[in-house]
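[retry 2/3] cytochrome-c oxidase: previous attempt timed out, resubmitting with same input.
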Amino acid sequence: MVELGNFSPEERAAQEERLRKVWKTPGGWRYWTSVNNSEIGLWYGITAFAFMLFAGLLGLLMRAQLAVPNNDLISAELFNQAFTLHGTVMMFLFAVPIFEAIAIFLLPSMLGARELPFPRLSAFGYWSFLLGGIFVCGSIFFNAAPNAGWFMYPPLATDKEYAGIGADIWLLGLSFIEVASIAAAVEIIVGIMKCRAPGMRINMMPMFAWYLLIVAGMILFAFPPLIAGDILFEMERMFDWPFFDVSRGGDPLLWQHLFWIFGHPEVYIIFLPAIALMAMIVPTFSQRPIVGYSWIVLAAVGTGFLSFGLWVHHMFTTGLPQISLAFFSAASEAVAIPTGVQIFVFIATMLAGRVIFSVPMLFGAGGLAIFTIGGLTGVMVALVPFDWQAHDTYFIVAHLHYVIIGGMFFPIVAGIYYYFPFVTGKKLSDAWGKIAFWLMFVGFNVGFFPMHFSGLRGMPRRVFTYPEEFGWDLFNMISTIGAFIFAAGVMTFVIDIFRPKAKPVERNLNPWNAGTLEWTNDPDESWGMRSVPIIASRYPLWEQPNLQADIEAGRYYLPDAKSGKRETLVTSVLDAEPIQCLRVGGVSLVPMVAALALGGVFIALTFHWWILTLICASITFIAIMVWLWTGTAQIPEADEVDVGLGQKLPVYVSGPASVGWWAMFITMVGDGTAFASLVFGYFFYWTVHDDFTAGAVGPGMLWPMLALALFVVAWLLTITARELNEKGPAGCRIALVSGILVTIAACLAGLAGPYVHAMDPTSNVYPATVWIIAIWTVVHGAVGVIMQAYCLVGSLTGRVTASYDQDIRNVTLYWHFMAFTAVVTFAVLGLFPMVSA
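[retry 2/3] cytochrome-c oxidase: success.
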């Protein structure tokens, strides 16, 4: 039994004053340099919600245009831009970012942590998201918005005359936004795995944390294929490399594969966090722990796994082999099983408890009802013969919105009503909430249910008008009326959020009598936890008496901030044993500068402003170097610090114990997924063509095998530098210098094959694919050189030593992935197929 700390009122007041000083948010313009996850998460959510309202207005504009036949309210071009931006914003700028915002806002308190490990990374992600969103959304005001659909199918979207600059804005703007999503995924995964309160073993995590861990992992495998596809797409538009041009060996179906490998898991990346909110709300208003904790975790994992085997059901009409149709149809049916398990667990929990009817439960139940209808139509379209009939009709539009709005939007609103007191200390109005719910519920069903019938009567998607004799006018008029009723409900909800509210007579940190840890958080304070508690149950506020009082009294870990630095506790992955007192980054301009400069790179590339691209790239590089140099791997003033309860922990750790090592590993998993997508493209072209090379000369075997060998030597030298660093700096420095020189030679050899053999990337898809994979690997080699040089400078300045070796261990981990990438790249290019000069 751990003996808790006990402080006098004077000591507690002094501790809290020091904590407030350390975690204080600056005022004035410096407010925007804040990197608190709580504040970043809040602004993330507000920004995502604002983008949603913008997309909703575009949706209403579309419905107004379709209300009657032969309407000329807006032009076909504006309609195309509106529906493209509507889908793009809802999927990329609202559905995923809103959950990332909720996650980085809630997780510190929910996990019992003072902060997540990389608050500056969260800030970088937010500024990237904001700038990318403004860039993409603002294009419609200059008649330059993308107009080829939120899925950007070639060859329509690669046609420069039709798509114009809008396609480039979509590709580069969303590539920039995807950087923010992956940054948030890294923060979420490392935070959940390494920053849980002591005692919160992995089988005791809140359901919300489990779901977000699964979703963040899915992001690492779903988003990179889209990034790889964006690279191929933009290379065709910018430099005429024919990845999707059939006349030169390309194939538009590769884009569909890469897009839907992202696009269908995306649906579950959206759905699972919504279920996570319900997994927090249902037990609270049933006043009992959730039934079948292990079952719902396994069902969530199963849903995430199966979601990657469904993407081809979006391509049933593209002429696939029968075996492919059968496999993906079966997988599409099978995913209903774990989804159903999760819904039945909620029903069982409500039956086992005493349900308190409330606005959050109203929205949650309504959302589940709508989602169930969407799931039933999903089972229908998973059947190939039916899909052939309903494909690209308004039946699919109805199905999509029933799944997304029922499975995501209604639970989000439920979550906002539930967590609003957590953010502000005040509840939203029950009366306003019920009005908003019924307007939204009735409006949604009136708006979207008739689309099933218009779709079955043949109305295709993405038409801006239609003739009267087709008989679609009544369904469209009803849908338009329903859409405006739904919008009235959304506006009621928004007004309820922003209208003035009376201050509560009594301050209640837990108005719903919830059992999870986040409800101990004081919304008036900027830290996650007053002191980091010891957890012994899944619902500690119900099962651990006096826990909240003990946390507020500072009787647990990190009750003070005597070091004057922001500190949080790092624990072991499985058992949550304390292993480090981590010092996280404080107020800083660097993440904002890095994000805005990187945004400048993408924007300048869109307009082919090459000099500005180089300037912005240079600023980004400098900002990142400053960020790393002033980051968490600095040598502390003492090896160990007192974290309370009579325990001392190290401030500096390296290797798998450190959060930096985990962040590198997770980032490289995502990077490896993008690389695998490019290799998939290489073999896709090879299998769909009788003669992939079309008689073109390949890079030969000599240069690829030489590059492979040199990269392996550079990898071994990096490992050697890490090992020699433990014995002294001299050998480490020699190995690093040698590694830098060998890596440079490897990069040159990697490009020499296609260059020496004059492979023209504009002539055919084979040389273009060889070039793109070689360039990918060489760019990563150049990053490897920068990392080796960074460690060399660290060694020369005393930052990297035998005891403080986090940087070189993380760089070595990068090189494990780098070596694998190089071996695969040059083995594939040199050996498959055997074509040489």
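[retry 2/3] cytochrome-c oxidase: The beta strands are 567-571, 578-583, 640-644, 647-650.
[retry 2/3] clearing retry counter.
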